Amino acid sequence: MDLQLDHGLAAKYSSSSQVARVLTEKWVSDQLYCPACDSNVLSPNPAGTRVVDFQCHTCHEGFQLKSQRRPFGAKVTDAAYEPMAERIEHDAAPNFVFLRYQTDRWRVRDVFFVPRYFLSPSIIERRRALGPKARRAGWVGCNILLSRLPLDARIQAVRGEIPISPDAVRTSWLRFAFLETKDAESRGWTADVLACVRELHRESFALADLYSFEGRLAIMHPMNRNVRPKLRQQLQVLRDHGVLEFLGGGEYRILLSLNGDESPQPS
Predict the structure, then answer these.
(1) Over the stretch 186-200, which tens digit does the pLDDT of each residue have?
(2) Which among 190, 184, 177, 162 is positioned nearest to 260, based on CA atoms?
């Protein structure tokens, strides 16, 4: 994988945002592969295609590219709120490619995927409508709340200018593919509880530890009045799919490290 961006393509563009867009889109089409199957090509969609920038013609997964020179923070600006909310609700949201580049050497610094099966209503935020003097007055955009996603949702393909093995990337992608069979609300609950588990920063934890997140989960899922039973249900889901082990007495152990490897079994 060549991490160098072809700055020669920027000659006819004056806007720095246009330069970055052209260079990063060309890099993805030339260098990046599909994380969901064994295809080594992501093909660019025709200019003007909404939401989906790249397509894998083997498994038909679609990808939207987000690129910037700064590290990605807690939230990332996206397009219109209502269309994205509807896409998530109807399992039609794109996968995301987040790419960070350096402008001093025009190189790719970091790349991570976020699979669409981790997207749920709780991770998009409605932005304030544009004011009456704006060119698109009344338009409502959204933010993607990366801070609400479990770290498992960030599947690294390049870290600090070091490419990750495609086999490792694809293994990480498949570990949580069981979420594809669930509706948007169920996916959201599983991902949100997993994010709470990861936030504890412990290999083993107690059910009582997770109850400390009850208030946060209630805000994220305002239609649910039985947060604790739902939380316990999601721990069972994660246990059944090999993410957690139930030790008894309200105690659990994480079986997957953040790089997707299994944690060592006790002797």
Answers:
(1) 999 999 999 999 999
(2) 177
